[in-house]
């Protein structure tokens, strides 16, 4: 058994982006939101994700702009840290260690160097009461600093961050809990409390749900469970306070937000209608309906030109001030439960599962972006609790992605069950699926499972239902007209001893069909519809059923609540079995590997194996604390070349799974995850700075190539400047708005360019000495040439023959010989006897 080595479970795309209110940049070009353990930066124009600020190790619970620098943002997390980011460049600037889980953050311009956090000081993290703490941020040059100065502002505040708000730029803070509103004034250091009755004469529910403060006036707006909005005034005096009431929402008010100028108040709730109240004019309002899911949060830009609403269907809607929707940022929709399996569209390689009510969503895991929704029910959904409406419960693709089969139901919890089987054909023109056939009475009872044949030549759909039958659906010729028909019809109906079928699966070549009936597996031939054999399962109803792939196609796997069995179809005998409770069995379509999730001892373990060998290739203990019922293998964009036995199963496909808490997780290698986290996310001036186009042109590797091609110089030829390299590197790689003032950097930069005086003097002295020696040599050469010319003239007068002229090379060689010192020869001659 191979243990887990360097493979670990990580959160992948599809995190919630509606957990906390979003934040606009001051120029309204970007909108920031908390997404899992990261902060995402979106463009308000293109709706594209520009940066993902990664660094927290737990859920990000709040974000807010830095009032001292509008290009920076604070983020707090349940990991007990607060991080300061440069969201334009996607760089982590500083980390403040708090030491306690942080649930919300707020700042004010009047409180410089102080942030307000909502902490849970109790040992029980699920405590409903939190404490509001003022944290004095230490000024340090280190990137990671521990914040030790914590001062409590107020205790026993609501765990809902929407019930706490700063007023008038930080003069007071209002926080509500249950039926009590508290206002704390920082100067007076005094708290005023106001209470409401649980119900009035008309039976209204007066519990507080959200709080917002006017930016300039002494006015606090509160939302309540009965849909009313109260505007509180004169709250600095406990006995003379007053409030007025606004009412439009028929259910609880989820969020309130004043515009920056304070001229309007925005409210939202379960009705999915954005309501804009004119401040100072009673009941004068403007409505923007049909925005999708329930409105959870509202944010306004600093100039008041854009609004952003967060919805329960994991969506952000960007709205202009004239109440026109200008952008929609859709995340992975996560409802209370995923009724369909996790599927992969063979064409787009997108993840497909339940989305908006009555829809299937197509989500790109590679780009972490919602592609589109496919309306299956094709009916308007009414957002009201208690209504029984159609929901998509089953869906499956064929092997080529040309057909999609869906099942929608209504009345699952009642005896009046209504369901439809629909088949959708892919349209090349519209690049989407179009409804082809609707079957109103496919079975007499609920459909349990369905699957398409694995062959690309013929397409067949098999459904099993609680009525004790399984049916085969296919396209064929009409019996009356003998013409090919484009719609689907029933081709065969099968059963076995009036037992209820539970699962069905085709072999890799579609030559066999396996249908499980409680504890018995039946093998059928799709060509003749003859039952070939039966396999008797150990006691227990069969949960999962799947064939092996590639070289393991002769094996058939089945699971019960206690056992995992592998059958050999060539011998019709049990190959091997093991006693383990498998909650989900998922085969990899591109390899022989099969993944099995086992829940035991209050945690889930993963086993990856091949049907031909009972020994697991890979095991991972304690993957999560919940049961795993949804999983899927996603083809790798580029196949990996892992040689390690424990990671070879990730070469062609990557395993994704969904927990009961709706967390989408996957398995990654440590090296792959480290490669994904770019070093440019951190403000560290070292050799790990991200490679940019400018760095490619003038970077270090270009200098190294230059050094290899050119000869090395000595220190006298090229003086070194060690003090300038670090300074210039810091100037080039640090964002301008993060650097100190120019007056501080100027002297450092100029000094780095200057050469020391000692080096200059030595260089000048050495150059002067070289010039003097060269001049002396030239003078001596001229004297020798003059002597030679005189001797030549004398020789010409005495001798009639004329000596031939020497070449320049010979003259130089002669001069070199004349300069040679031959005094050693005289000593040698004198020493002879």
UniProtKB/TrEMBL annotation:
Disordered, as annotated region: 760-812
Entry's Gene Ontology molecular function annotations: RNA binding
Residues in WD repeats: 53-95, 201-232, 246-278, 440-473
Keyword NADP annotated: no
PROSITE patterns cross-referenced by the UniProt entry: WD_REPEATS_2 (PS50082), WD_REPEATS_REGION (PS50294)
Biological processes per GO annotation: positive regulation of rRNA processing; positive regulation of transcription by RNA polymerase I; rRNA processing
Biased composition (Acidic residues): 765-786
Cellular component terms per the entry's GO annotation: small-subunit processome
Record's keyword annotation contains tRNA-binding: no
Main subcellular location of this protein, as a coarse class: nucleus
Domain WD repeat-containing protein 75 second beta-propeller: 342-662
Keyword line: Nucleus, Repeat, Ribosome biogenesis, rRNA processing, Transcription, WD repeat
Compartments in which it is found: Nucleus, Nucleolus
Domain of life: Eukaryota
Protein name in UniProt: WD repeat-containing protein 75 second beta-propeller domain-containing protein
Provenance organism: Cirrhinus molitorella (mud carp)
């Amino acid at each position: 058994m191979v243990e887990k080595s360097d493979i670990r479970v990580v959160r992948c795309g599809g995190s919630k982006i509606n957990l906390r209110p979003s934040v606009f940049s001051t120029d309204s070009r970007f909108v920031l939101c908390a997404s899992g353990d990261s902060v995402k930066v979106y463009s308000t124009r293109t709706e594209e994700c520009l940066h993902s600020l990664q660094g927290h190790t737990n859920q990000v619970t709040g974000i807010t702009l830095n009032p001292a620098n509008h290009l920076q943002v604070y983020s707090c997390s349940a990991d007990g840290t607060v991080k300061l980011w440069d969201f334009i460049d996607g760089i982590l600037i500083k980390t403040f260690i708090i030491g306690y889980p942080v649930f919300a953050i707020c700042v004010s311009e009047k409180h410089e160097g102080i942030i307000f956090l909502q902490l849970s000081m109790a040992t029980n993290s699920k405590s409903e009461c939190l404490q509001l703490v003022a944290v004095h941020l230490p000024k340090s040059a280190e990137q990671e600093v521990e914040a030790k100065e914590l001062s409590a502002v107020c205790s026993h505040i609501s765990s809902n961050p929407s019930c706490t708000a700063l007023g008038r730029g930080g003069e007071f803070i209002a926080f509500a809990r249950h039926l009590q509103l508290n206002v704390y004034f920082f100067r007076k250091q005094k708290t005023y409390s106001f209470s409401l009755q649980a119900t009035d004469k008309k039976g209204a529910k007066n519990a507080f749900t959200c709080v917002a403060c006017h930016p300039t006036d002494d006015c606090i707006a509160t939302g309540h469970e009965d849909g009313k909005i109260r505007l509180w005034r004169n709250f600095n005096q406990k006995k003379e306070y007053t409030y007025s009431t606004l009412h439009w929402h028929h259910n609880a008010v989820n969020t309130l937000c004043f515009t920056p100028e304070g001229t309007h108040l925005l409210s939202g709730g379960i009705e999915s209608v954005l309501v804009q109240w004119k401040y100072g004019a009673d009941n004068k309002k403007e409505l923007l309906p049909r925005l999708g899911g329930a409105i959870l949060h509202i944010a306004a830009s600093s100039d008041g030109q854009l609004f952003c609403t967060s919805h329960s269907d994991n969506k952000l809607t960007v709205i202009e001030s004239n109440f026109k929707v200008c952008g929609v940022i859709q995340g992975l929709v996560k409802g209370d439960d995923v009724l369909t399996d996790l599927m992969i569209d063979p064409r787009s390689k997108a993840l497909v599962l339940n989305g908006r009510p009555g829809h299937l969503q197509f989500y790109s895991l590679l780009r972490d972006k919602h592609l589109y929704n496919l309306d299956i029910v094709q009916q308007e959904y009414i957002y009201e609790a208690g209504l029984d409406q159609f929901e998509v419960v089953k869906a499956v693709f064929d092997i080529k992605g040309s057909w999609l089969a869906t099942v929608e139901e209504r009345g699952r919890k009642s005896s009046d069950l209504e369901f439809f089987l629909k088949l959708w054909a892919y349209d090349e023109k519209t690049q989407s699926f179009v409804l082809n056939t609707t079957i109103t009475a496919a079975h007499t009872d609920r459909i349990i499972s369905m699957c398409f044949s694995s062959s690309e030549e013929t397409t067949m759909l098999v459904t099993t239902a609680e009525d004790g039958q399984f049916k085969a659906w296919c396209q064929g010729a009409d019996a009356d007209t003998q013409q090919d028909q484009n719609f689907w019809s029933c081709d065969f109906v099968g059963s076995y001893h009036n037992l209820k079928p539970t699962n069905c699966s085709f072999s890799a070549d579609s030559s066999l069909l396996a249908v499980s009936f409680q504890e018995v597996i039946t093998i059928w031939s799709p060509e003749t519809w003859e039952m070939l054999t039966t396999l008797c399962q150990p006691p227990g109803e069969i949960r999962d059923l799947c064939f092996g792939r590639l070289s393991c196609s002769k094996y058939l796997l089945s699971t019960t609540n206690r056992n995992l069995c592998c059958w050999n179809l060539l011998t019709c005998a049990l190959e091997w079995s093991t006693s383990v409770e498998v909650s989900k069995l998922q085969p990899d379509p591109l390899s022989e590997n099969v993944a099995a999730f086992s829940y035991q001892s209050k945690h889930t373990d993963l086993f990856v194996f091949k049907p031909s060998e009972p020994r697991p290739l890979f095991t991972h203990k304690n993957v999560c604390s919940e049961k795993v019922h949804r999983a899927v293998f996603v083809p790798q964009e580029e196949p990996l070349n892992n040689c390690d036995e424990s990671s070879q199963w990730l070469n062609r496909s990557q395993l994704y799974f969904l927990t009961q808490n709706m967390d989408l997780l996957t398995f990654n290698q440590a090296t792959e995850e480290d490669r994904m986290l770019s070093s440019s996310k951190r403000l560290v001036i070292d050799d790990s700075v991200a490679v940019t186009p400018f760095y490619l042109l003038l970077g270090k590797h270009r200098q190294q190539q230059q050094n290899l091609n050119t000869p090395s110089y000595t220190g006298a030829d090229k003086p070194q400047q060690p003090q300038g390299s670090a300074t210039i590197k810091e100037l080039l790689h640090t964002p301008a708005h993060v650097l100190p003032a120019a007056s501080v950097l100027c002297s450092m930069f100029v000094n780095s360019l200057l050469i020391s005086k000692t080096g200059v003097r030595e260089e000048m002295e050495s150059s002067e000495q070289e010039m003097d020696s060269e001049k002396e040599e030239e003078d001596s050469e001229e004297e020798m040439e003059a002597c030679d010319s005189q001797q030549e003239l004398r020789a010409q007068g005495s001798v009639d023959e004329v000596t031939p002229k020497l070449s320049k090379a010979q003259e130089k060689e002669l001069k070199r010989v004349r300069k040679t010192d031959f005094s050693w020869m005289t000593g040698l001659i004198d020493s002879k006897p």
